Amino acid sequence: MSKAVKESVAESTGVFAGAFMGRYDHALDPKKRFTIPSEWRAVMGNPKFVYVMPDPKERCLNIIPQAEMEGRLAELRKNALFGPAQNRLLQIIGANSEMPALDVQGRIRISDKLLQFANLTTTVAMLGAVRMIKLWNPQALAPADKVDQASLAEALAQAGF
């Protein structure tokens, strides 16, 4: 998708156009940073930071772009500021998530707590998940050079493609 088309879609919908596709494996550097691919940074609009939270069902992390997360936050802001039930939920989400900055080279440093949760010690497998990026320990995944056609067929059918 061209830059002009992305900008046009963003202007008309309020959401940056694009999707996260593919897989990239990156080693953690000595400071435990890794680089988000430039293509994915472009999809996100070259942000200064991203939202990171543990997956609620699997031992991986989710990088959620600002546009995706802030759309959800806007809905939450419509509720009462001090509603006890909602405040408890938001406190749990906030305490277990973070907003790390990207440096000029697109590197990101996620806290030790979250890296440990996902067992990310030396290498990070970044999987495009259309709306977000999933961070996995590569050993928890099928080999990067194989296509799981059965899983793909099932996913496409369930998604209504």
Which overall shape is indicated by the principal axes computed on the Cα atoms?
globular
Q: Radius of gyration in whole Å, from Cα?
A: 17 Å
What CATH architecture do you see?
Answer: 3-Layer(aba) Sandwich
The share of residues in extended strands comes to 15-25%
Number of helices: 6
| CATH topology type | Chemotaxis protein chec
- Unreliable spans: 1-15
Number of strands: 7
Which secondary-structure class do the elements indicate? alpha+beta
SSE order, one letter for each helix or strand: HEEHEEHHEHEEH
CATH-level-4 superfamily name: Transcriptional regulator MraZ domain
Tell me the span between the first and last alpha carbons: 19 Å
Helix content: 25-40%
Largest sheet: number of strands, sense, barrel closure: 5 strands, antiparallel
Q: What's the CATH C level?
A: Alpha Beta
Strand order of the largest sheet: 1-6-7-4-3
Q: Mean pLDDT score, rounded? A: 86
Number of domains: 1
